């Protein structure tokens, strides 16, 4: 294509291209993360090369034997859709450097393994066919690339000649390699909705080897490239560009308050979480979260104005581990009846204060308030500040009415109730859903 001023990379600005660029994303609220690479074979966390300080040579056996003969990408996509997930983000390349697609810029790719094909294409096609939006995770780190300087978290950090080896490694060449690959990812796979870059550690230092950040990645150029090739693609915040507003990505914890941008405004955010403690398939990992914990996580993210992206680490043979399938089914069962309290919802206006043992979400368009009762009370639940405002209260799972009393002066244990309190009269028996929700239609 002929280069015109318009097609030239624009300078990185501090604002997303359009204010509504994130609309689909905040409407969606729930996505699937997929961490899949050679590390599925050692099956002991995607950081295994770092943890065990494994050289390229010793890691080669996983490349030579990567053969996901049971991969059924349509089945993955179907499970994501049934769980209620509206987008997915897959590791096109993780820190190990292995590429799931047929990149022209490396031999370290799926096409050269016994899998012998572009796995990314197969997966993207399957998810797109289910109407699920597409996100690409791309690791800024690369423990396999010969030009990537050894640093504090590189597998060779303790090699006696590490500093010497770094003399022939040129991070500029590596940064160019990344831009070439990002170009491929944004040109050969149709519309990509999210680019998810991971991660920066500029302040680290070990044996005289510094960590890496925006100057190493040439982050501004990466952002400009994404904007040029695919202006609507949204980006996450791990490129070490704090002034650039992008998706804030808390990981493995639940923020109690909505995260903020550098300028103090409330951020668009997405918590990324795992079913167990690892992102890549970890066979012997035992810290799997329960059905209730998982569903609560989704609710708590939305109740603080965020998205949840839940990770699956497929096995080396290409299928989802039975424990992940169980949790996905749990989500599917709950979302079938409760997605209305998730999609398009956010934190409730400040005047509505959550009672103990419950979380609110709020749909600003329909003006409905959702009470997620995580701690089932005995018969009554007092909600402050809602008297005179509710036209009907119903369980979301079956539409059955919940009666309520307004401005009861005393709670039944004789405590004073503040003016404006609404008391829901709940059945004694916990409904047959993991977390019951009462939908309040406001006047
Ligand atoms: C971290 C880890 C990584 C994982 C990611 C997901 O930065 O390095 O293994 O992919 O978080 O958020």
- In the CATH hierarchy, what is the class of the largest domain? Alpha Beta
- Kindly report the average pLDDT value: 94
Question: What is the terminal-to-terminal distance?
Answer: 57 Å
Task: Summarize the biggest pleated sheet.
Answer: 7 strands, parallel
Strand content: 15-25%
CATH superfamily of the largest domain: Glycosidases
Query: Treating each run of at least 4 consecutive H or I residues as one helix, how many helices?
Result: 11
Q: Report strand order across the widest sheet.
A: 7-4-3-2-1-9-8
How many domains? 2
The strand count comes to 16
Characteristics:
single chain; 443 residues; alpha/beta; TIM Barrel; Immunoglobulin-like; 2 domains; seven-stranded parallel sheet; four-stranded antiparallel sheet; 11 helices; 16 strands; disordered N terminus; binds alpha-D-glucopyranose
Structure summarized in a few sentences:
This protein has 443 residues and is α/β, with parallel strands linked by helices. It is 24% helix and 18% strand. It is built from eleven helices and 16 strands.
Structural topology:
Elements: H1 23-28, E1 30-34, H2 48-51, H3 56-64, H4 73-82, E2 87-93, H5 119-129, E3 133-139, H6 162-166, H7 171-187, E4 194-198, E5 205-206, E6 209-210, H8 214-217, H9 219-229, E7 234-235, E8 269-274, H10 291-303, E9 306-312, H11 322-338, E10 358-363, E11 368-373, E12 380-383, E13 390-395, E14 404-406, E15 422-425, E16 437-442
Parallel strand pairs: 1-2, 1-9, 2-3, 3-4, 4-7, 8-9
Antiparallel strand pairs: 5-6, 10-11, 11-16, 12-15, 13-16, 14-15
Helix pairs in contact: 4-5, 4-11, 7-9
